[in-house]
Write a structure and sequence with these properties.
- The protein is mostly helical and 101 residues long.
- The chain folds into two domains: 33 residues; 67 residues, no CATH class.
- It contains five helices and two strands, in the order E-H-H-E-H-H-H.
- Strands 1-2 form a two-stranded parallel sheet.
- The protein is globular and about 40 Å long.
- The two termini are 17 Å apart.
- The mean pLDDT is 80.
Length: 101
């Protein structure tokens, strides 16, 4: 798994980096001045907020985690994306993975 982050102080702290490494996540950081690098992540969270968070009233953190997890799963596995010729991100990613082997 790869996690993309900017170079903010919270993402470069030893505590954060230790947790990322412990979870076996590769860390990719945007270069300074690369504001557009984050556009895909920002779009994902905008969609999740519009289609999940703003429509629900979670009674507990567990309900929020469950709702967000389901939304992220749906976004990547089931929701066709116009910019991907109506494919899901999972379909596009699996095609790229298959071509590199």
């Amino acid at each position: 798994m790869i996690g993309n982050r900017d170079q903010g102080s919270h993402f470069t702290s030893q505590g954060y980096l230790g947790r990322v490494q412990a979870a076996n996540v590769q860390l990719s950081m945007d270069g300074k001045g690369r504001a557009l690098d984050n556009v895909f992540t920002e779009r994902l969270w905008r969609t999740i907020k519009d289609e999940e968070v703003y429509l629900k009233e979670y009674a507990t953190p567990r309900q929020a985690r469950h709702g967000l997890s389901g939304s992220i799963q749906f976004y990547h596995q089931e929701r066709p994306h116009q910019a991907l010729q109506s494919q899901t991100p999972a379909e596009v990613y699996s095609m790229k993975e298959g071509s590199s082997t």
